[in-house]
Every structure is written in structure tokens, then in C-alpha cells.
Amino acid sequence: MTTGQDNLTDGMHLMVDALKKNGVETIFGVVGIPVTDLARHAQEVGIRYIGFRHEQSAGNAAAISGFLTKKPGICLTVSAPGFLNGLTALACATINGFPMIQISGSSNRNIIDLQQGDYEGLDQMNVAKPFAKAAYRINRPEDIAVGVARAIRTAVSGRPGGVYLDITTAMLSATIDADVAAKSLFVPVDPAPKQIPSNSAVERAMRLLAQAKKPLIIIGKGAAYSQADEAVKNFVEKSGIPYLPMSMAKGLLPDNHKQCAASARGYVLGNADVVMLLGARLNWLLTHGKGKKWNPDAQFIQLDIDATEIDSNRPIAAPVVGDIGSSLSLMLDKLSSYPMQPCKEWCDAIDKIKSENSTKMATKLSSTSQPMNYFNALKAISDVLDKHRDIYVVNEGANTLDDTRNVINMYHPRRRLDCGTWGVMGVGMGYSIAAAVTGKRPVIAIEGDSAFGFSGMEVETICRYKLPVTIVVFNNNGIYRGTDKNLGGGSDPAPTTLTIGARYDKMIEAFGGASFNATTPEELRTAVEGGLQSGKPTLVNCVIDPSVGLESGHIGNLNPKSTIKK
């Protein structure tokens, strides 16, 4: 597109053309100097622009869009403070392995390099480098096509991650011959090529797995991202091996699958003799494969696209370095040569533990406590979601996260979206918006009241775009719980206490959404069903007992306590 002058275009139009040519359908962002017109021109050529109230939420939306599509989600921000606001989401995307590109306008290089104090002046590219998979700067319009291609290839190849793309004010306004500009555009060929593991690695893994008496497969979100859904299902079912899904891998096989060992997690980790890590990492979420939760004599098979992940915490006896789809395809081909023999006593013991724990959980879920607690409230939501199995479930918080993960079953892949590897709060509204826009399905966001506060203003964004998002805020008046006292005896609330009796449902009324205040399981069922059926923005204030909730949820051991008594 030309600027109106004879046969000229500028960097701003060319940047939009490059994104359009590379299949970008949606940009999530916050506009301002110097990128406002870029968003306008993106809309002009048919790219959907979703405008947020805060760049971190826009970045979270771009990140989870990348997870859902295997294409880099695009976040657009202004310079300096706006760039920094988006950087948390970019770092989180890199840690989680989500392909994302943050595009930020920046000040002119000559002023920045001499530190002359430009408006929102910051050396953004170098600031971004430690937090992203890569960072690039485009200084000239003729380099836009290469810059976009490099960003895309870097974001999706190998282990996916976040890429920062710096676009200077001077470049955006610089002109270039329109014909030359058009000829410069291209789409990178095969940006995420398959990575085939060696035959010897596959043979080694199959031999070890076939010898196991108490094998276990742990399925991580890397397997969910790979979209090798049939291969995962076939390998699990044909091998007969029990499996444990990590949080965002729930639904690759339905949670009620007979081989699912989620409700016997402690038992299988403590007793498995061979553990196959399928797109899962031995990080803090699995206590680094160490400690009393684990069988110290267990041997590990690890399928991962990144060789540097191998041996990161425990020695890996059989590393299989390659993409999940290719690796599982080769392992499936060899399954007949290495018949799996999980011990009957092992499977029977798992089933016994599952049955016992399911009985205990049923008792919790049937509680009639008033006010509600986490479990009878989640039972009410679960009753509704069991009739809406294909929707997206976004989840964050401490107790709200932990208990929802244990109670709400998932039946389809990539439908559960949560705070992932870093456990970072504030992803909820960004993820919900992206799931509704990218996934084109209804969304329920199950939020702790503290977690909701990080991105709650995005309910206006949800209403502005009329998205089918139902938000349930578990309100117990505090971080973890709302009953803590000020140890100094003053009038200020305790550090973990929020506003008592807050009505979060009133927020969405200001923007035209539907609101409910639920104080009983039946009211909660009615509210959630109503929100999902209507397809309209809905917020439910779910009132639960202020005294329920554990410090830091299930990971209180990570929260140090003072040992000094005054």
C-alpha cells in the first residue's frame, strides 16, 4: 500500500504488509506513540486488532495464542514503559515454550545511543535479550521482510519461545519505492522443521521401557503443544502404561481414562521404576525428580526437542532428542518388537489408590458447608462443565488453581490454560481473550480473587469485543484466605487481606456485561450455566468461606517462614 506519494510506501505500511503476507490474523496490543497508525493500517488490511488495557495482558494473549496455534502470537506495544510491561509476558512465553513475537516501537538510535534523553528512551533490544529467545531490531524498511522472517523462524523452531522485534520510529516513517518494497516480502519456508531422533536413541528407550515392571508416562504441555494427539493416544493405549498428565496436558487423553493415574500421583511417582517424560521437564513442578516423592532408583526416558534439557536434574538413561510427533511415530513403529509388560500388580495397586482417593474427594465435594468452600463450589462448576466439555478452562490462583486442577476433568487437548512453568499470576484475562478470539469457543475463567486483581480491568476488553467469556472469581477476601490479622495491631489490614465483602460482579456491570453474586452451590450452577448459554461476557462473584485456603496452596514448602520469635 502506498502513502499517497507517487510509488512510495513507508516502513509502517510495509511492516503491516509483511505481517499480513506471513498469515498474521490477529494482533494483541496497546497503542500509542509510535505505533498507533500501525494498528490502524493492520485493521485496514483485514488483520484483527484486539486492544487491551495493559500490555502484560496483551502479551499473555499473544503467548497463549501461540500455544494454541503453533504460530507466533503477536503483541504490539509502545516504547519504554509499554515495552517493559509486555516483557513479563515475553519472558513467561520463553520459559513455557510458547511462540510469541513482541513488536515494540522504539526511539531513534542516535538519541538512545548517546543517551540524550529521548521521549520514552530505552535501549529496548538489549534489555529484552536476557528474557527472550532472541531479540532483533529493524532500522530500515528494506530489512522488514528479513526481520519478520527471522522473528517467526526463531519463535517456532526447536523449543518455541518469545522473540522481541524492535521497530524504530525512524524506520516506521522512512519511505521506500513501493515496487521494491513489494518484491522484498516473502514467507519463510518450513520455519519449524521436524527434528528426527536417531534410531539408536529410540531403540535404547524402547528396550528400557519394555524391561520395566512399574513404568509410568508423564505427559507435559510440550506434548500438548506438538499437536501429535493421535500418536500420544496410540502409544499410551497400545503400551498399556499408566500415565500422569501435567496440568496443561490434561485432556490429551480424557481425565477419566482408565490408564490415567492423576488421582494416584504420589503413589506412582514414589514407586515407578522407569519414567518416560513426554514433553515434560524435571523442573520444580516435579520437584526436580528428587526427594521423598520419588523412587530414588527410577530410571528416566526423556523425549524433548532440546538436547540441553537432558540430565538437567536427574541422569537420563535414554534421551530421545527430537520433536514429539517424530519421536512417538518411530517408537510406535517399534512397539511390536518391544512388547510392553506393565506388571499386573502395579496396575492393580494404582487402581486401588485411585479408588480410595476418589472416595475421599467425593466426600470433600459433597460438603454442604455455608459459606461455600473450594470443593463444593468447584463441584457446582464441574456439574455444569460436564455438559460443556469442549470449552476452554482458564485457571489461576493458589488454592483456586490447585483445587480446580484436581476437580475439573478435561476431555479435549489444549483446553486447559493456566499459569504454567513460572506459576505467574495475572495471565487469566489475557488467556481468556485469546482463547475466545483464537480458539473461537466459549471460555470459563476460574480465578482466585488475588489472581483476578492482576488483570481484572480487562473485563472491559472482554465486553468491548463481546467475547463469550464467563469469569468466576473465588472470593474469600484475601490472598490464600481473608482472616489474617495485622501482627502490629494497627488499623491497616494484614498483608494477605483484601477488601472484605468485595463485589467483583459489579465491575462488569459498568461495561454492560452480565453479573451474578453466588453464595450457594445452586446459585453458582445457575450463574455459570447462564453465562455459558448466553455467550455474553459474564462475571460471577463466588463467595466462599474467608477461612478456607492454605498458605501458598499446595506449594507452601516453597514459602519460607520466619523462625525468629519476638
Please outline the helices and strands.
Blueprint: E1 8-10, H1 11-21, E2 26-29, H2 36-44, E3 48-51, H3 55-69, E4 73-77, H4 81-96, E5 100-106, H5 109-113, H6 124-128, E6 134-138, H7 144-156, E7 162-168, H8 169-173, E8 175-177, H9 178-184, H10 199-211, E9 215-219, H11 221-226, H12 229-239, E10 243-245, H13 265-271, E11 274-278, E12 299-304, E13 318-321, H14 324-333, H15 344-365, H16 374-385, E14 392-396, H17 399-407, E15 416-418, H18 428-438, E16 443-448, H19 449-455, H20 459-464, E17 469-475, H21 505-509, E18 514-518, H22 521-534, E19 538-543
Parallel strand pairs: 2-3, 2-4, 4-5, 5-7, 6-7, 9-10, 9-11, 11-12, 12-13, 14-15, 14-16, 16-17, 17-19, 18-19
Antiparallel strand pairs: 1-8
Helix pairs in contact: 1-2, 3-4, 3-18, 12-14, 16-17, 16-22
Describe the structure.
- This protein is an alpha/beta fold.
- It folds into three domains: 8-184, 3-Layer(aba) Sandwich (Rossmann fold); 199-351, 3-Layer(aba) Sandwich (Rossmann fold), CATH 3.40.50.1220; 366-550, Thiamin diphosphate (ThDP)-binding fold, Pyr/PP domains (Rossmann fold), CATH 3.40.50.
- It has 22 helices and 19 strands.
- It has a six-stranded parallel beta sheet with strand order 3-2-4-5-7-6, sandwiched between helices.
- Helix 16 packs parallel to helix 22.
- The protein is globular, with a radius of gyration of 25 Å.
- The model has no long low-confidence stretch (mean pLDDT 95).
